[in-house]
Specification:
CATH superfamily: Rhodanese-like domain
Helix content: 25-40%
Strand content: 15-25%
CATH class: Alpha Beta
Shape: globular
Distance between the termini: 48 Å
CATH topology: Oxidized Rhodanese, domain 1
Largest sheet: 5 strands, parallel
Strand order of the largest sheet: 1-5-4-2-3
Oligomer: single chain
Number of helices: 5
Length: 119
């Protein structure tokens, strides 16, 4: 079997509306981790309310704090969905299940008309 850089497990995407419905119908069942850089997270686009900011490069060092949420849906978001996809793959490859990618990132979130915060 050829070696691959990632497992063959598929990362499931959630649309902004899927995520919004989870927040509304299943409060406390999910956590959003924003993997963008600080200047993006605190910048003009804002971030998903109550999201946890863990820049992508810090994920390996912060695995224990991420694993503390393993009983919930762990939803990763970035600007467009690309970095968060790779971050989700990394978490899955390191033993976490129930990991999702926010399809289209914060850009699609904003285009969907959903609220963000700027603090």
């Amino acid at each position: 079997m050829p070696l691959t850089p990632f497992s063959s497990r598929k990362v499931n995407d959630l649309t902004p509306f899927d995520i919004s419905e989870i927040f509304e119908n299943e409060p406390g069942s999910a956590v959003v981790i924003d993997v963008r850089e600080p200047w993006e997270y605190y910048g003009d686009t804002g971030h998903v309310k109550n999201s946890i900011h863990i820049p992508m490069g810090e994920i390996p060092d912060r695995m224990e704090s991420i694993k503390a949420h393993s009983g919930k849906k762990i939803i990763l978001i970035c600007n467009s969905g690309e970095r968060s996809y790779y971050a989700a793959k990394y978490l899955m490859d390191n033993g976490l299940d129930n990991v999702y990618n926010a399809d289209g990132g914060i850009m699609k979130w904003l285009m969907s008309g959903l609220d963000v915060e700027y603090e």
